[in-house]
Write a structure and sequence with these properties.
This protein is an alpha/beta fold and 247 residues long. 38% of the residues lie in helices and 21% in strands. The protein has a five-stranded parallel beta sheet, sandwiched between helices. Strands 6-7-8-9 form a four-stranded antiparallel beta sheet, with helices on one face. Strand 4 (76-81), helix 4 and strand 5 (98-102) form a beta-alpha-beta unit. Helix 1 (11-23) packs across helix 5, helix 6 (171-182) packs across helix 7 and helix 6 packs across helix 8.
């Protein structure tokens, strides 16, 4: 049974979100403040964290930052108030995988959580996995690993290394990198990435912008002058493979 840590100081929101997740088959842990959330996360190792930004004591941004440091692979879905775009961007920058704006549909939140966990656990490269990660033509099965210069993505272990060192990627960053490596040399629009990587029919494209920036900081030697994950002005982003014998 997957486990979820729900962090919100509003007992009504916590009750509703917890109840919906429990009905969806999750073991639910609850916290009403940041310090308790960090303690529970350390003791229970949840599969996903649903995290409100506005918390007493240690706020949601700091909780997310510490989770990224201590448990980099755990997906984090942030709850933000309507219109707080700056907070949403900050949340994504410190490592949130997704966000839901209050007021929200609890059913939508559960679907977002389930989508993130499916993406995290998808057996990419296993039998029946195709170029776009869906079940289909066995001829399109992906290899278990993809290498690009000093960068190696291991789909079975869900690990990425650069020059032999493991990169601390979030679930969404891993999925985004995997998508780019599977489609080298192709310019992707932000709206296409929202659909193909996030699985949304619509969404805030700034989410893609922030994730690309975070990913560059981890895979590029000089993130300010990227050689791999480049911007195609007026279009979006493209992955340029590293030429042979170039580090």
């Amino acid at each position: 049974m997957p486990s979820a840590l729900v962090v919100d100081d509003d007992p009504t929101v916590g009750d509703v979100v917890g109840a919906y997740l429990a009905r969806a088959g999750f073991e639910v842990h609850r916290a009403a403040d940041g310090a308790t959330a960090l303690d529970l996360a350390a003791r229970t190792s949840p599969d996903v964290v649903v995290l409100d930004l506005m918390l007493p004591g240690v706020d949601g941004l700091e909780v997310c930052r510490r989770l990224r440091r201590d448990q980099p692979a755990v997906p984090v879905v942030m709850l933000t108030a309507l219109g707080e775009e700056t907070d949403r961007i900050h949340g994504l920058e410190v490592g949130a995988d997704d966000y839901v704006t209050k007021p929200f549909s609890p059913r939508e939140l559960v679907l977002r959580v389930q989508a993130i966990l499916r993406r995290a656990s998808a057996p990419t490269g296993a039998a029946g996995s195709t170029d776009d990660g869906r079940t289909g033509d066995p001829a399109a099965i992906l290899p278990p690993t993809t290498a690009d210069g000093d960068l190696v993505l291991d789909r079975r272990a869900h690990v990425v290394t650069r020059a032999g060192s493991v990169l601390a990627l979030t679930t969404r960053e891993f999925s985004l990198l995997d998508w780019f490596l599977r489609h080298p040399g192709v310019a992707h629009r932000r709206e296409d990435l929202i659909r193909d990587v996030w699985g949304w029919d619509f969404g805030d494209q700034s989410t893609v912008t922030v994730h690309v920036r975070r990913l560059r900081e981890k895979v590029e030697a000089e993130p300010s002058t990227p050689r791999r994950l480049v911007t195609v002005f007026g279009v979006g982003y493209r992955w340029d493979p590293t030429p042979p014998d170039v580090p």
